[in-house]
# Entry
Amino acid sequence: MFELAQGLAVAKSRQDVAAALAFLDSDMVLEGPAFGTRAKGLAENEAALARFFKSFPDYNVVLSGHANDAETLICWGEARMTMTGDRFGVTPNGKRAELPVFIRFTFRNDLIASEYFFFDLSALCAQSGVSTDQVRQKLFGEVL
# Structure
């Protein structure tokens, strides 16, 4: 399981969407709660990854640890990424953010069936020099 997750991390760190898709089951579900996103199936995952890499063209993740049972793998590590563009309705400062990440994977057919990618949106916004409230407004239509 960890080898699949590590391979996916390497492909994503190269922003290689085609290579990343090779690790995914055809019904793969990718959830990013920080952005309120959910993609199911290869076509939606391809679009979600392309959109993510457009916003974070230098994305890099290093997995530093993991734990698993027979069905689930949890990984943790650090993601480094620079927010670019206007997808989030703000103008970022161009500085690279460094964020702890936690990722839960499940598997089917010797491929990744789901990925739940968690990081702190407020930490990303603070390091990118933008308002979390403005980003949440753009993403979710409301500020909590």
In short: The first strand starts at residue 24 and ends at 32. The mean pLDDT is 96. The longest helix spans residues 41-55. The CA atoms of residues 92 and 128 lie 5 Å apart.
